[in-house]
């Protein structure tokens, strides 16, 4: 049952109207019964009925509950830096969908230049966009946008992930969906699984980069029959991963 955020702060909640009727008549609630209330934003609490009088239910908070809007599968989106403000779009949309972090990188065909010394403002802006998107999506954590890496620096980081998917439009064999099915059935039991998603720039990845990625442990995967824009591919792949893990829709 939803209560207002103001009510939610109190130790006693009063429920009236349709919800109170539902508790007393449909659920046959009585003093001592417990149920969960939500502030409709991000918090829940377990409450216990203390009185039902004249169509109104009064309940005491027993315990505040942890309610998470975070996905169980932790996906990092590594995006080869696109032109213009497309990186901002990637960060904003993928934060809404559920990415946990971002690693911009420079690959062979990256068109834009990135000078870390001169462009700290840009990194700051990306992190601000992640924060605002996280707030609007009621995320519990703000994804971090890392300092852009060179392709060669990114390769050794593959070992920190349970799966690395190299999105490659020229891939004729494995599709992301086929790669995800066995992965989802063998998730680590003791910690959240970590996935790294690699998306190329406007001109795509080179064959050599594909070879190097596979050698470093990535699976080259297709995302279907159509070629997606570089800023679209990450969103689509991320949504597919979270869908397969039962987190979307
Ligand atoms: N020329 C367009 C642009 O300027 O955005 C499309 C670029 S596409 C080559 C950019 C990246 O998106 C690729 O390197 C790949 O990572 C990903 N991508 C796009 N479509 C894909 C597909 N059907 N399967 C796998 N990856 C794809």
UniProtKB/TrEMBL annotation:
It is found in: Cytoplasm. Residues 71-241 form the Ribosomal RNA small subunit methyltransferase E methyltransferase domain. GO terms for molecular function: rRNA (uridine-N3-)-methyltransferase activity. The keyword Methyltransferase applies. It catalyses: uridine(1498) in 16S rRNA + S-adenosyl-L-methionine = N(3)-methyluridine(1498) in 16S rRNA + S-adenosyl-L-homocysteine + H(+). Belongs to the RNA methyltransferase RsmE family. GO terms for biological process: rRNA base methylation. PANTHER family: 16S RRNA (URACIL(1498)-N(3))-METHYLTRANSFERASE, RIBOSOMAL RNA SMALL SUBUNIT METHYLTRANSFERASE E. Specifically methylates the N3 position of the uracil ring of uridine 1498 (m3U1498) in 16S rRNA. Acts on the fully assembled 30S ribosomal subunit. Its EC number is 2.1.1.193. This is Ribosomal RNA small subunit methyltransferase E.
